[in-house]
């Protein structure tokens, strides 16, 4: 591994990305508050939660909540999903997307709601349709368009190299590959051997690998065996945004580690959520993150549960004080 500082990031379509470790889009988690915390710790490309082109093309107001961002998030990618070419074009042409560095098309989401409407991983069953959607988005977009895929819809069906090659040939900016099939949902383990095959087949084309990376050791092994250009990290970053500084240290041993304070992080995250969702909803929304943050303390289960009763920022701060969480 080349550990010189200049290689900590990568450049795609002339856009400088500060780290080879991207934050995976995760609906219900990766709002601008959490993404910004990850950027503070050195995350590379950030991606919004998935945004429906059916809604965006009709300018449905609540859709714009998923598109909010903070200045520090640049470079940020906007992830779109849907199965209708005209809706992609309309969404891209009729909305101000100038802050975003990429549009990413979701061709991997396995959830019923998305698949039954022909979007997400349903597209993996029809390469012509994948390409037609990529073409439509590219024809409307002033910014580069990337695609996030899984290996396929059902395990054993093959075709992942052909699909990836087709995306490359159609001028996709880069692809991110989650090493599972849609029918796996999140079961089993990500298949990095297949990701490696895709990278090998695509040569210089940028491939970002994704799936199950939780530690620096796993990331190093994934880079060495698959030769991917970057790695996208999802679940391991939830409640642990500082994972990015540890991962970045693979390429830069002199990295300046920021000190982690569970108390400060929890309060900062909480305040951001209160601003975005309103105080009560923000505090409720934060419960899943608070439990993860508390996992890094030696607080026992009964005390952790007390945090689940909090209704305000002050309630949380009082408990942090009571249990001496720093
Ligand atoms: C709660 C949750 C929400 C997700 N939402 C999205 C999404 O909006 N768009 C997307 O492309 N992938 C989504 N994913 C998949 C992740 O981006 C990623 O591919 C997957 O979690 C595997 O990476 P990991 O093992 O590092 O978590 C989601 C995953 C989870 C767990």
What would a concise description of this structure say?
This protein is α/β, with parallel strands linked by helices and 326 residues long. It contains 13 helices and eleven strands.
Helix and strand arrangement:
Elements: E1 10-12, E2 15-17, E3 21-23, H1 32-40, E4 46-47, E5 51-52, H2 53-57, E6 76-81, H3 85-93, E7 102-107, H4 112-115, H5 127-140, E8 145-152, H6 160-169, E9 175-181, H7 192-202, E10 207-210, H8 216-226, E11 230-233, H9 243-248, H10 262-277, H11 279-294, H12 301-306, H13 313-322
Parallel strand pairs: 3-11, 4-6, 5-6, 6-7, 7-8, 8-9, 9-10, 10-11
Antiparallel strand pairs: 1-2
Helix pairs in contact: 3-5, 6-7, 10-11, 10-13
The chain binds flavin mononucleotide.
Flavin mononucleotide is lined by residues 24-29, 49-50, 79, 106, 108-109, 148, 178, 210-213, 233-236.
């Amino acid at each position: 591994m080349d550990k010189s500082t200049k290689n900590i990031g990568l450049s795609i379509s002339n856009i400088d990305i500060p780290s080879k470790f991207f934050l995976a889009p995760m609906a219900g988690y990766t709002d601008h508050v959490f993404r910004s915390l990850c950027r503070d710790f050195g995350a590379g490309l950030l991606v919004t939660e998935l945004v429906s082109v059916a809604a965006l093309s009709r300018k449905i107001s609540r859709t714009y909540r998923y598109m909010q961002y903070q200045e520090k998030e640049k470079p940020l990618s906007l992830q779109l999903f849907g199965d209708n070419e005209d809706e992609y074009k309309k969404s891209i042409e009729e909305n101000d997307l100038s802050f975003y560095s990429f549009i990413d098309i979701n061709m991997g989401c396995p959830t019923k709601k998305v698949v039954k409407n022909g979007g997400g991983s349903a597209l993996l069953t029809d390469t012509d349709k994948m390409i037609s959607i990529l073409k439509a988005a590219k024809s409307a977009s002033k910014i580069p368009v990337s695609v996030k895929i899984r290996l396929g819809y059902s395990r054993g069906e093959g075709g992942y190299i052909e699909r990836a090659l087709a995306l490359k040939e159609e001028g996709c900016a880069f692809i991110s590959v989650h090493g599972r099939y849609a029918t796996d949902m999140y079961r089993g383990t990500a298949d990095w051997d297949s990701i490696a095959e895709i990278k090998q087949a695509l040569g210089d084309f940028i491939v970002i690998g994704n799936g199950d990376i939780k530690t620096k050791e796993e990331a190093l092994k994934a880079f060495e065996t698959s030769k991917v250009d970057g790695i996208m990290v999802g679940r391991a970053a939830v409640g642990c945004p500082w994972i990015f500084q540890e991962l970045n240290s693979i390429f830069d041993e002199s990295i300046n580690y920021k000190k982690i304070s569970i108390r400060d992080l929890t309060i900062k995250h909480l305040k951001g959520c209160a601003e975005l969702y309103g105080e009560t909803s923000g505090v409720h929304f934060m419960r899943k993150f608070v439990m993860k943050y508390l996992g890094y303390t030696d607080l026992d289960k009964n005390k952790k549960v007390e945090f689940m009763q909090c209704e305000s920022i002050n309630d949380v701060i009082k408990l942090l004080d009571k249990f001496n969480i720093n």
